[in-house]
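Example (one chain per record):
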Amino acid sequence: LKGNKAKKEKVVTREYTINLHRRLHGCTFKKKEPKAIKEIRKFAQKAMGTTDVRVDEELYSLVTVTEIPEGGLKGLGTQVIEEEE
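Predicted structure:
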């Protein structure tokens, strides 16, 4: 692998359905939204194998509604962002 230091990574987009009802069972109402964001980040870190996880505004607005749908949230997309040096 000599000379291949600048490895280009492809942009990866995957869709998952996260069962937040199971992950937030027994959580009080006021703590539900911050815990949901933490659980989404934790799921994305495990699924994608990276610690740099950013929640999109659209997904954040879906979580901050008064009720989280029992069927879960669909459409978790992640991307690998290459930083220029």
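Caption: Residues 29-48 form the longest helix (20 residues).
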